[in-house]
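Notes from the 1:1 (GR / supervisor)

We went over the backlog. Supervisor wanted to see one worked example end to end before approving the batch request, so GR pasted a single chain during the call. The sequence is below; no edits were made to it. Supervisor asked that the structure be written out right there so they could see what the output format looks like.
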Amino acid sequence: MTLVLLYLVVLVLVGIVLFAVGSVLFGRGEVLPPLPQATTAAVLPASGVTGADVEAVKFTQVLRGYKTSEVDWVLDRLGRELDMLRGELATVRAAHGLDGPAEGDGPDGAHALPAEQTRGDA
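Structure output shown during the call:
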């Protein structure tokens, strides 16, 4: 029994030595530098964000969910895009003499979906 234990200890020591030599010779792989402050790995186009762009966004997962700074950045970016589009829409409506929401728009100015699309039967 002692001989088996001795072989096991020697085997573990040889494994540790081989791992240490391999780490020194080959390194531990390329380590990417951290992202600069206030940047994110999430990607959106500079303008003209589409639904496919939003679906393609991937967030870094951390211990308790997603990385908050990345989610905040995407929400801010989408908010600016919506504000820009609503501004353009208001300009077009003013140019054509339309004052209020277009026919069929909801009470907040958002376009109301037909009943079959709101149920998800599209």
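Supervisor's comment: The first helix runs from residue 2 to 26.
Batch request approved.
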